[in-house]
Amino acid sequence: MASHIKITKAPGTWSVRAGGAVLAESSDALELSEGDYDPVIYFPREDIAMAFLDKTDATSRCPHKGDASYYSVVTKSRTLENAAWSYEDPKDAVAQIKDHLAFYKMEEITVEQI
């Protein structure tokens, strides 16, 4: 793993809410810390209500983690474009985040420990 990336089990139970709905709740979330960036919580796919997410064509590349795929979150009132991402085939050094998704913190999305 790149020396500036650390992945640990996130303590406690974490949730994601958007548009009044709970999208995810997990006691198996991972916390990824990377350099000076804020830590990011990655949720296991099986703990996410994937029916609220639509995969988009957007991608990005991280030299340390690999290629990211993006998902839009569909709420009752609007679609939040590319609001979540996943490294579906991450580099070996960060293989723990495979089958996990992370969500951008924004006004319409709350990621919090409960």
UniProtKB/TrEMBL annotation:
Domain called DUF427: residue spans: 15-105
Q: Which Pfam families match?
A: NTP_transf_9
The UniProt transmembrane annotation reads none
Per its record, how is this protein called by name? Answer: DUF427 domain-containing protein
